[in-house]
Task: structure prediction
Amino acid sequence: MAKTELAVAELIWNIIARKTGNVGKVDFFPQKPAFPFGDTFPEREDGQQPLERAVPESQGVSSAHLAAFLKDLALHENVDIHQIMVVRNNKVICECGFEPYPAGMWHASYSMCKSVTGMAVGMLIGEGHLRLQDKVIDLFGGKKNLLNIFRLKDITVEHLLTMTSCVSFNETGIVSGNDWVRGYLESGLIGVPGKKFEYNSMNSYMLSAIITEVTGESLMEYLRPRLWEPMGIQKVFWETCPKGITKGGWGLFLCPEDAAKLGILYLQHGSWKGQQLVPEDWVEMSLKRHVETPSSMSNYGYGYQLWKGGREESFNYNGMLGQDVLAYPDLNMVVVTNAGSKELFQNCVLLGIVKKYFEEDFNPPAVLPEDLRGQIMLQHVIEEMEGRRTGLPVIEKGGWEKRKAVYIRSTLRQKRINYLDGKLYEMEEQQVGLMPLMMQVFHNNFTDGIHKIGFMASGNRLFIDLYEGKEKKSLEVGFVKAVASNVSFNGEIYRIGTKGEFSTDEDGRMVLKIDFAFLEEACRRKLKLYFDENTLEAHWDETPGKEVIMEGLDSLTDLGGKMGFLMNTIKESGGIDVFHLLVERTVQPVCVGKEINTEDEEAAKNEPAYQDQTEE
Result:
């Protein structure tokens, strides 16, 4: 079995076997910082360059139309919408964060950032340092050998841009070792380059590697004076591979407003405030349909690291699970979405809703009459979605009886909080971590396993303590709305919104349901805790969950090679049901803990712990 395929199979097995620590073949080093709430380029006079805000009607769009759009998105559980921004004529006419996700925070973009990599390639070509027809193998002369010269001799920069390289080293290669460029260049082909669309994030990574090879700078370093600073894009972070090459095809964290600016940039043919940042002819070439795409992914074709859209001349910067910049030139409009959808590709519920409101029979005028009632309705919907509008007064329909019921629920919750105060449970199995599996793989940041779970009360506030490896993660559980905290995972800082709810199961056991929303990501961790005398039973889950993970694993059957052969063999032998069951138990594990007498466990109190927490 080839090195990459063996590494993928080994990683899958290690995860299913619930091994902890760095179970991959890739060296881990902390990268992701905490979200910067302050100004990161204070020395620049132009600052963040915020987009102008405007009343929707002043730009020809009905406030009632936007309110219905937000409510429609919120109604669909499969969408799990996080943030929305709508811009027309370079003015923000609607922005909303869906509780617990705050508006304006950066978000993992996944493959949406491929379009940014495409912009950088266009800049490099415009500077005369690269050509579309340059052979990839020639650009990495130091890594040439007889094998890759023969195999990859025909692959050009344009093939990388259009996803037609047909190189078999794909996304799964990120778990096989530290040298991804070598892995790509030593890989085989699954077709004839230039003939067929084969979506592969490593093509985008190689474009980033080419920029580094040609300029001596990482993609982030190259873009800082050419894109980020001129556009006032300050709060941005892009992960690198172990060799220090910007990932290119994923790993970018970007705020919705800055993503909207990138959409506007292409609507303006690469110009920003009178400065031509991306060559105009490159923008024109990028937006052409260069290759047809599978109907399961998109019906409209692919340009240079971006997708064609369904409306006239429209285009999308698209990332899985709902990270999108949808641009409509005929409307001079941009729609930005961040979500945690349960669907991977473009043909999904989320984009179906966007098309319903902004593509199907949507032809707004230049301006509409003032609609104060509609504007108030939109503002109320936004406040409700963001958790800032609590609705009716306490004494509402139902009168005193309803107020009495609220009081009883509050009293019962306080009783349960008091019951949990000071309790500490040692887990019999220590293979489950707080970070969702999908995030662990994407960030190469694997769990050390939660070995203790404890609780602390402060008045009517409840904190859950998760002892994972050498770190103690202490999070306040919000019961009215989520409480946000910065939490360390092996030195990387992620912001989590934690919300809980007490209930009772059919056996009379107290149950605490907790939703851990990773506010910068598409993922959530779900936890149900069942309390029975001195025993704690923890039921874990995550979203996007087993359906999306199995969709990704099932796609391995289309890869060819020995990994594809292995997955097909499992299917044909009837073993796929067993495999699915193993994956389900991995994504939805059940762990049991026994209560510790903390008075006799001084060591548990004095355990070394890394803790970095702030609250909103």
